[in-house]
Amino acid sequence: GESVGLHLPTLSVQEGDNSIINCAYSNSASDYFIWYKQESGKGPQFIIDIRSNMDKRQGQRVTVLLNKTVKHLSLQIAATQPGDSAVYFCAETLNQGGKLIFGQGTELSVKP
Amino acid sequence: ETGVTQTPRHLVMGMTNKKSLKCEQHLGHNAMYWYKQSAKKPLELMFVYNFKEQTENNSVPSRFSPECPNSSHLFLHLHTLQPEDSALYLCASSQDHRLAVYNEQFFGPGTRLTVL
């Protein structure tokens, strides 16, 4: 399943499928990006980050892709599990003294 | 306790009430943050403190008054709020407010505030 930008607030996928969550960031000067996961009743939790000198970074079951040309960030979750159900949002910033600017978020729902 | 804790978890108040939100971090961090999370809106930074000194006030109305007595504790004093102030208020901490890389912000669970 795939979300489109910030205007599709929900994404529903089948357990075991791959999920792709997209984010369009605003500042072409931003040089550091973070994906957060927020489960119901909890605060946001860091998932993975990427610096602007990279275009791809992999973690455990997650991959972040950065396309600076079109100011686009995506989070790919492999073999999505029910525990992945949450709101996911991206944040951009300038490493040197920048404030985190958060995207609206996409709610991921995993169907068993 | 570990991480970042916030109390109360839920708060309902009238527009004429005065209440306070409390945040405590047990991570030895030097920077603490208040964020507002409204329904269907991105997280908004409100205040940043570093070593007890306020370094950022993101044009927050004066009815929100932060206090940071030490690097481990952060308060948000609320006075004559409006219904549109109803939101989830999140506290976060990090080692240093000046850098983002290798300076992960750890968030508390938030206080769900409802203003009647």
List the helices and strands and how they pair.
The complex is a heterodimer of chains A (112) and B (116).
Chain A: E1 10-14, E2 19-24, E3 32-38, E4 45-51, E5 56-58, E6 62-67, E7 72-77, E8 86-93, E9 101-102, E10 106-111
Parallel strand pairs in A: 1-10
Antiparallel strand pairs in A: 2-7, 3-4, 3-8, 5-6, 6-7, 8-9, 8-10
Chain B: E1 4-7, E2 10-13, E3 18-25, E4 31-37, E5 44-50, E6 53-57, E7 64-70, E8 73-79, E9 87-94, E10 106-107, E11 111-115
Parallel strand pairs in B: 2-11
Antiparallel strand pairs in B: 1-3, 3-8, 4-5, 4-9, 5-6, 7-8, 9-10, 9-11
Task: Please explain how this structure is put together.
The complex is a heterodimer of chains A (112) and B (116). With 112 residues, chain A is mainly β. Helices cover 0% and strands 50% of the residues of chain A. Chain A has no helices and 10 strands. In chain A, strands 1, 3, 4, 8, 9 and 10 form a 6-stranded mixed β-sheet that branches. Chain A has a 4-stranded antiparallel β-sheet with strand order 2-7-6-5, with no helix packed on it. In chain A, a hairpin with a 3-residue loop joins strand 5 and strand 6. Chain A is globular, with a radius of gyration of 13 Å. The two termini of chain A are 14 Å apart. In chain A, 32% of the residues are buried. Chain B is 0% helix and 55% strand. Chain B has no helices and 11 strands. Chain B has strands spanning 4-7, 10-13, 18-25, 31-37, 44-50, 53-57, 64-70, 73-79, 87-94, 106-107, 111-115. In chain B, strands 2, 4, 5, 6, 9, 10 and 11 form a 7-stranded mixed β-sheet that branches. Chain B has a 4-stranded antiparallel β-sheet with strand order 1-3-8-7, with no helix packed on it. Chain B starts with a strand and ends with a strand. The relative contact order of chain B is 0.33. The mean pLDDT of chain B is 93.
